[in-house]
Amino acid sequence: MNKVILVLSDALRYDVAKDNMGFLGHLVEKKLASLYKITGELPSMSRPMYETIHTGLPSSEHGIVANSIVRLSNQPNIFRSVRDAGKVTAAAAYYWYSELYNRAPYDRIDDKETDDESLNIQHGRFYTEDEYPDVELFASAAHLVRKFSPDYLLLHPMGMDYHGETFGSDTKEYRNHAIYQDSKLAPLIMEWRERGYTVFVTGDHGINADGGHGGTTHQQRTVPFFVIQPNGQGRGETDEIISHLQIAPTILHLLGIPIPETMKQKPLSFD
Fold first, then answer.
1. Taking Cα atoms as reference points, which of 30, 38, 65 lies closest to residue 49?
2. pLDDT tens digit string along 192-250?
3. In a domain, 265, yes or no
4. What is the Cβ-side half-sphere exposure of residue 58, based on CA atoms within 13 angstroms?
5. C-alpha 54: how far from its chain's center?
6. 266 lies in a domain?
7. N or C end of the chain, less CB within 10 A?
């Protein structure tokens, strides 16, 4: 049975990822991975998209319509479904994920590291500062994989969002950080593939030249969806445009877990 890692790079734009993430580009070029384009759901904001990606629902249905809404998810979601199926969940992620799926509001001390099988995110390593180093978060994720072998792991770095909001997206700082993320993820992706994981790399939203997001332009809502399978098979760069709403049912399908009726989109097929 498959295991899945979702690398959700906050504010990773499609064009910047395609042009600057050379290791992922290499896998796509050699047809060892697939690259799809996502036209993201709206609003192109973080907390609403975290919930959309994990519930398969648009924001108007799940109710997290702004970053300022702080409460637990009240919808069937990936973490709950995986836990209820008796499998193991983990995340190395921004603290808003803890507030959505474990406890709200977040406690900087008690919730920073969690190892509790009763929680939706059973093994969590959370951070609160947008400039928290991606490489340290990647090490936390790698440690979770080696120690707990989770069936589903979320890795959620904020580095692209931080550099995009600080400097704007049409800058060397934003583009170079995509190169940096790619180089640090490369050995981990190879290790995870060897461990039998399907790895997805995507973004919750994009970002515009002014360093903003939340709107409807393609710069703010078009993100990549890289698929790296443990069998080493890929389709290369595709012309297929997919939806954020397909991610949750796709992950549950790969894990062999029944898809909740609320997740209405058809899972993706990589055959």
1. 65
2. 999 999 999 999 999 999 999 999 999 999 999 999 999 999 999 998 999 999 999 99
3. no
4. 8
5. 9
6. no
7. C
Alpha helices in 63-203 (DSSP H): 78-84, 95-101, 134-148, 159-167, 172-194
Amino acid symbol at 214? G
Q: Name residue 174's amino acid.
A: Y
Asked if residue 102 is part of any domain, the answer here is: yes
Q: Are strands 113-115 and 123-127 parallel, antiparallel or unpaired?
A: antiparallel
Nearest alpha-carbon partner for 173 in 186, 161, 190: 161
Domain count, the chain: 1
Contact by Cβ (8 Å): 23, 185: yes
**At 167, phi and psi to the nearest 5?**
-115, -15
Q: How confident is the model at residue 270 (pLDDT cuts 50, 70, 90)?
A: confident
Query: What pLDDT band is residue 271 in, cutting at 50, 70 and 90?
Result: confident
Rounded distance between C-alpha atoms, residue 59 and residue 169, angstroms:
25
Which tokens hold the place of 56? Answer: 């398969």
In a domain, 192, yes or no: yes
Domain coverage including residue 88: 3-254
